Amino acid sequence: MSTGLNCLFREVAPGQWWYVLQDWSCPIGAWDWREYATAYGPFPSEEAADAHLRANHANPGGYTISFYQEGDVIDEVMARLMKEAA
Known about the structure:
The chain has about 90 residues and is α+β, with helices and mostly antiparallel strands. The protein is built from 2 helices and 4 strands; from the N terminus they run E-E-E-H-E-H. It has helices spanning about 45-55, 75-85; strands spanning about 5-15, 15-20, 35-45, 65. Keywords: Plasmid.
């Protein structure tokens, strides 16, 4: 059974992966669920990030993967989440 929470795996630079997991306290219909989330990382691979998620959290039920592309910009929300995780 899954929690139904949103989850994002994001490669922010080559070989630098993070995952963002929606918090239980996120209001229904929030404009950007990431504003009510926690980031975990960095990890050397998507597989390492996924292993950490599986070992430490309930199954969110699905996820989005965002691979790094040349010129990617880290938005304010992702930058804040990464800073808070450090």
